[in-house]
Each structure stands twice: as structure tokens, then as C-alpha cells.
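#lab-general

N.A. 3:47 PM
ok so I finally got the sequence cleaned up, no stray characters, all 193 residues accounted for. can someone with queue access submit it? mine expired

B.Y. 3:52 PM
send it over

N.A. 3:53 PM
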Amino acid sequence: MRFLRALLGISLLAGACTTTDPVSAPASAPPKPIADSSPYLCSLVPEQAIRLMFDASGPITDLTSGAKTSGQCSAPRTHPYLLYIAWSQEDGKRTREDLNRLLADKKRVYSQHGGVPLPADLGDGMVAKVPSGLPNLPYEAAVKFPCGGKERYLTFSIAAVAQGRDAFQDMIELLRIVQKRYAELNKCDIGND
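B.Y. 4:20 PM
back already:
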């Protein structure tokens, strides 16, 4: 009988010490924000930001072709590329209407894939996840913005980001940096239309 009372007492104490509330896991730290720092890939994108976004540790090289007015650059890790950027501006060969058509086409495709408009301070554009876009670069953005009295058009594509990161937010922050660097390199002021 004593044994049963002791067992009952222990079970009552054990019941009093347990909780029906679920044990919550410790909150993980928010991802580190994208920041502007050198060195740059493609002369425009902070290498450290790319390393952070993709959790990349090996060497990253960039390949640029074209000129200041119209060109492209990619950063292959091996394969696939981590990022791809193309730029163009209105000049003797490309008109403002050409750039408007390019952006309208991109926005039409992005709208079909749940695209989100870019913040107004970045210019006219959108960001989207386009599974049928460039191979292994599903996240895309396209933006048209004035710089030095000429319209500039920029497209930007990235691979899937590391777990826990927001690809759209990272792209928006990268576009802020890319536009600033673009203006510095091309000696034009953003917003002068």
C-alpha cells in the first residue's frame, strides 16, 4: 500500500511539473541585411552581398561584355550562374520608346508570375520569380530609370537564395546599390530626366 501511495504521489508531482504548452524553439536570428561594400562583381554588385545571399564561399568571378551604354555581366560559380545583369541606355542606336517596349514586355511576363512593382524611388519596374526565364536564374527584376537626362534600362537575374532569405527584398536592396554604382561609374545623377 505504501508503495502505491508513493507511486501516486510521484505521478501527481510529475504531472504538476509538466505543461501542456508546446515548447517553442529558440527564434533564429534574422538574415543579415544586404550592404554596399567593395569589392564589386560586374563593377556594380557587392561581392559580399552575393556571398551572403547564396551562402557562397568559393571564388566568384565575373564576366563582362559590351560597353558602358549597353552590355551584360554574369558571375558564374561553376555552373549555373549566380547572377546576370544587362544594361542599356537611350542613345543613337536605342530610343526611349525601345526601352519602354522592353520594360513593358518584362512587366507583362512578370505580372503573369505574381510580379511585384519596385518601390517608386528605384524607377519603373518589377521583380518576379519566373521559372521559365534564364536557366537556373528564376528571380528577375527589370527597371527603367533616368540618369543624367537619359533613360537607363537594367535587368537583373539571380539564382535561388540561401534558406531563410527573402529573394525579392534582397533584389530590391541590390538594385539600390547597383543603381548608385551605375550612376557613379557613368557619372550621371539618378532622377535627372
